[in-house]
TrEMBL record:
PANTHER family: ESPIN (PTHR24153). This is Uncharacterized protein. Keywords: ANK repeat, Hearing, Repeat. Residues 1-14 have a biased composition (Basic and acidic residues). One of its GO terms (biological process) is sensory perception of sound.
Length: 168
C-alpha cells in the first residue's frame, strides 16, 4: 500500500540519517516505523470518524494536532471527501469551516467532495458545499463527468434540479 511504501522509504532514509548522525540507524528506523504506524492509525481514525459522523472524534484529532488537509487515503480521499460521500453535514462543516480544509480537493480519479455527495444523493451536503463553501459545479473527474452527470447517472433528481441551473 501507499502507506507501507512511505513507511519503508522513511525507514530507509532513517538508516542513512543514522549513519550520519549520533543516533543508531536501528533506533531511527524503529522510531520512523512507529511514526508511520501512528500516521496510519490517525488516518484510519479520521476517515472512519468522517464516515460515521463522529464529530467528537474529529474534534479530538484536531485538538491534538493530528488532523490536517494533507491527510488522505490511498485513493487521495481525505476526511472532507468521506464526510461528503456519507452525508455527514456537521462533520463536513467542522472540517471546512472550523479547520479550514479545502472544499474542493480532488481524489486520484478527480472526484471532489461535491461530486461524491451528488453521486450519493445527499442534497443537504450538496447545498452546503455550493452555497456555504463555493464548491465548483463545473469541475470534472478524470473520466470527464461533472457532479451533475454523477447525480443524473445515479437518478438523484432533487440534486439534478439544484445543480442544473448552476451548470450553465
Amino acid at each position: 500500500s501507499e502507506l507501507e511504501h512511505q513507511c519503508r522509504t522513511s525507514r530507509e532514509s532513517g538508516r542513512v540519517a543514522g549513519r550520519r548522525g549520533s543516533l543508531s540507524s536501528k533506533h531511527i528506523g524503529e522510531s520512523t516505523a512507529v511514526d508511520c504506524l501512528a500516521r496510519g492509525m490517525v488516518l484510519h481514525r479520521a476517515i472512519q470518524a468522517a464516515r460515521d459522523g463522529d464529530l467528537e472524534a474529529l474534534r479530538d484529532l484536531a485538538s491534538s494536532g493530528h488532523l490536517s488537509p494533507p491527510i488522505s487515503d490511498s485513493q487521495g480521499a481525505g476526511p472532507v471527501h468521506h464526510a461528503a460521500r456519507c452525508g455527514r453535514l456537521l462533520c463536513l462543516q467542522f472540517l471546512v469551516s472550523d479547520l479550514g480544509m479545502p472544499a474542493d480537493p480532488r481524489t486520484r480519479t478527480g472526484a471532489t467532495p461535491l461530486y461524491l455527495a451528488c453521486q450519493e444523493g445527499h442534497l443537504h451536503v450538496v447545498e452546503c458545499l455550493i452555497k456555504e463553501f463555493g464548491a465548483d459545479v463545473h469541475l470534472r473527474a478524470r473520466d470527464g463527468m461533472t457532479c451533475l452527470h454523477a447525480a443524473a447517472h445515479m437518478g438523484h433528481q432533487a440534486v439534478v434540479d439544484l445543480i442544473a441551473p448552476l451548470s450553465k
